[in-house]
Each structure stands twice: as structure tokens, then as C-alpha cells.
Amino acid sequence: MRTVVLVLLGFLVHGMASAAGDASLRTGKSAFGNWSDDAPGVRRQFHARDLPDPASVRSTVSASPAQHAARGARMPSVPSGFEVELVAQGLDGPRVLRIAPNGDVFLAETGGGRVLVFRPGADGKLPAEPIVFAKGLADVYGIAFFPPGPEPTALYVAQPTRVLRFPYRSGDTQASAAGTVVLKDIPGGGHSTRDLVAPNAQQLLVAVGSASNIADGLPKKSAEDIATFERTHARGAAWGSEERRASVWSIAADGSSPRLYAIGLRNCAGMAMQPATKLPWCVVNERDGLGNDLPFEYATRVREHGFYGWPWFYIGGHIDPRRAGERDDALRAEAITPDVLIQPHSAPLGIAFYDGAMFPPDYRGDAFVTLHGSWNRTPRTGYKVVRLRFKDGTPTGEYVDFMTGFVVDDAHAWGRPTGVAVARDGSLLVSEDEGGTVWRVRAKAGP
User: Fold this and answer.
1) 55: pLDDT confidence band, cut at 50, 70 and 90?
2) Could you tell me the pTM of the whole model?
3) Where are any strands of DSSP class E within 209-287?
4) Distance (Å, rounded) from C-alpha 292 to C-alpha 62?
5) Which CATH number belongs to the domain containing residue 137 in this structure?
6) C-beta of residue 199 within 8 angstroms of C-beta of residue 205
């Protein structure tokens, strides 16, 4: 187990947008880019009409995640007027970050199988040593305080095949009792991310990704067989090894009454509640194998009973040619077009809405999304944190590069952003699992 070393002094850097970080909005073909033209301030917006024809662009791109590079003195770049500091390193696969109502920072250390707690000081800095809230949790991922609000009584933690509930009182930094398994029948294998969010005091939502890329090996069914299946299953749901997968589940607080809340979401890797609307959002890793620029990843409101297309359709009613003719036009018309489209293969993992007061006022209500980075695109994309723009609680569809600089060259990267959270003081916390670090971004103090 690697020792966690906290950087007390912090390395501060003023992030200056490069020449690429201009103020013009890139749309259409000009919006597609790669790591080399990322910079704080670069603005992009994609539309469904920007999707290329799969027959003209399908390729057999064979790539791999960027090879590890030592960070050395490198720092992420952030917009002018902000500064970034390294607050933790030596972590083993840090991923989901959550802020307790009292301001404590909870971190799922996925590789280490632990839930860690950092209690910020009066200046917002994290302490010299984290406290282990719970351990022995292989591939731990989602974290949710329940019920939502100022006085939760439980902490829910998700692993690939189960959800546990720990007793919790405000200020607890160590579990007072072993976790109770409240849900144990989650199908394993395939995507292992299992994020959690509590929309109200009666239910939790659990994200369960697909077992494969496009329901590989799915047995064919006739229209009559599909109709029979859908009499007892959600309309549009897959079957076989993909049954109950590529979906968001709803469960009661005790784990009972599990049901499919929304389906057709290939891998909803991160979830958050939007404060302005009280609606759940998720960020989704879409399918591979259609080429560099198909299909878009996305962030979207998760509509109850919504169908988002996978595996037959993508980004609304676009037909995946590998599954053409398997479903009828009526289901195709029901496929929801997501709210914010993100460049293909960027691999979004985390989302957090900004509800703090430290950043400039126009940040409030926007969302931050971590892009883990492509493994099957040439050249690479992702490997950054972006800001989704909202107006009056409604997404505009635009996103802006906020935190970049994790890639060294075409083959190497020192960081891959994973978790994101807004600290109680309004600063932004970002984890990344390539180098095992956590970063804090704050608005630069005025003169």
C-alpha cells in the first residue's frame, strides 16, 4: 500500500490560457480536436447533426491508453484568475470525490479498496494525513450520504456487485460499524463503475454499466419474443448477459424494491443532482468501434422511464449499423437525444455542479466534468476537466476547457482526471488515477 503524501506548502500556478484558448465557440467540424489544441478557455459545442455517417468513417483504430509519464515539475493549466495546487499524492486509483455536509472530503480509493476522509483546515487545505473510514472494499467507487440534507444518518458505498450502508453521523471519520449489504445482486463483469446519488429521502439511484460494447453476443429475438419480454421488462431494455445493465436503478433506502429507473445508458460512470432543478444527471461513456468521431459521449438529465438508445441506437435515433434491423421505428423514435454532447472517446467519469461562492458569479449553476481520456482514438482526446455551461438551469450545450495539461505527448500522460467535487469553501477538487493525485483549484485572491 503506497504511502499518502500531502503537499502542505502546495505548488501554486497561475493558469494562463494559451493562444488556443480563444473566446470563439467552435462548432461543427472545427469543434473536433485533440489534446494538442486543448487549453483553458477553448469552447466547443456539438450537435447531433455533426455526427458523421458511420459508413464513411468507420475504422479499425487500434490504440491504447497513454503510457505513464512522470509528472516531474509539470502542473495542470487553469484559466487566468485561478490557481491550482497539488494537495494529495501517492494514492492508489483515486476516483469518486464527495463532500459531507460538514465539509469533510470523502474519497473512493478504488485501487486501494478504501474510503478515505480528509478534513480541510480553516484555509481550505487538506490535512497532512487522510483517515481511513473503511477498507477492504475491492474496486470501491460510488459514495452517497443519506438522506440528502444537513444531517445524514448513513453513508452508502458501491462496489461492482453490491451496495453497502454504513452508519454515519456528521463529523464521523471512521465507520462505527461494519457496512451492511443492502443490495447484492448487481451483475458483475464488464464496466465496473457503480456511482450513487440520493435524489430524495426515499430512494437512491445506482448506475450499472453494460457488460460489453454493443451487447456483443446478444441472442436475436423475433418481434413477438421482444413483445413478450417487454411485458415484464422496461421497453427498450436488453436481455441475456445485458439484462438489467446499461441502466440506472432505483432502490429504497434498505435496498428493497430495485427497479430500472432509466435504460439505454451504456456506461453512466458518474452522477450528480442538479441543485437548480433537483434532477439527476449522469455522464456516459458511449460505444467504440465506429471510428474516431463516432458517437458522442454525453452528459444528460436522467429522465425516469427514459430510453437513451443503447445498444441499437445512439444520440437519439441514429442506428448502429452493427445492430441494424433489430428494433422497430417506434422504439427508435423513443430514443432520447442527450443534453450535452462531448467529443467521442473522451471518457467522462465524474460530474459536479458548482454551487459555491468562491468562483466568479457566472460559474454558479454550471457543471464540471472530468474526462479520463481516450484509449481508442488517434490522436487522443479527453485527459482534462471541462465546464458545462447552463442558463437559468438549462444546459446550453456548450462546454469549455477548464483544467488541461495532463498529456505530455502523443504516447504519454501523467494524469487522467476521475473525480470532481465542490468543496465547502467553493474551491474545486479533482482526482486523477494515472499519477494518484488530488488537486485543488481556487479563484486567485484579489489585490
Assistant:
1) confident
2) 0.95
3) 247-252, 259-263, 268-274, 279-284
4) 10
5) 2.120.10.30
6) yes
